[in-house]
Amino acid sequence: ASQISLEVRVLTVADIFQALVSERPYKKAFSADKAVSILRAEAAKGWWDDAVVEALASLVAAAEVGGSVTV
Fold first, then answer.
1. Which pTM value belongs to this model?
2. How far, in Å, CA of 27 to CA of 57, rounded?
3. Which whole-number Å values give the CA distances from 67 to 7, 13, 21, 55, in the listed order?
């Protein structure tokens, strides 16, 4: 993962999150919590950067409680 730039790792996780929480013709949208759970499980398998997934999880948690999210 270190050979892949941080920017690409962030955009990859964000893109996957967006795909998971969006309804598609072939699937219903997952909740934000379920999407984070899926990303965490895949990060544990080494598919995604753990730190990036956890940063996204923090943003999702802050947004869910009405907090301010700054990126």
1. 0.84
2. 22
3. 24, 21, 20, 15
pLDDT tens, 56-67? 999 999 887 765
Q: Give the Cβ contact number of residue 57 at 10 Å.
A: 20
> Which residues contact residue 67 at a Cβ distance below 8 angstroms, ignoring those fewer than 6 apart?
61
| DSSP-assigned beta bridge partners for residue 27 | 24
Chain segment 45-54, per-residue pLDDT in tens: 999 999 999 9
Instruction: Note every long-range contact of 23-27, with CB atoms under 8 Å and residues 24 or more positions apart, other chains counting.
Output: none
Using the 8-state DSSP alphabet, how is residue 27 labeled? B
Q: Which two tokens stand for residue 14?
A: 């964000």
**What is the rounded distance in angstroms from the CA atom of residue 37 to the CA atom of residue 42?**
9
